[in-house]
Amino acid sequence: MPVDPHETALQEIALHRSGEPFVMLNLLRFAPDGRASYEEYSRRAAAFLRQYGGEVLYAGDGDTPLVAAQGQAWDAVLLVRYPSREAFSRMVADPGYREITSLRSHALDEAVLQPTTPWTRRAG
User: pTM of the entire structure?
Assistant: First the structure.
């Protein structure tokens, strides 16, 4: 299962609404003994998040799903806010950040990284 974004997807994200803040949904399934590696990745990634204006809004363990297809339970869920897609793209292109991504890759068996766009209130 894929755990790292494809280079084409990274290029695309910078082009889509690049000036607006967004929240990245992270769904994580750890490899056996992968949690420690992910915790080390998170500790090191925190400096890059701060540098590029990112902020972890929520991080927690998955629990028993109420509605999900078989095999869709996740070990952890994170919501990370970025000031823009361009800022996210600069962060993941940073050579220092790229040096630590192997910690994340080795920690996970499966992942979903889903950029989200906020709903706006509609006059009614």
Answer: 0.85
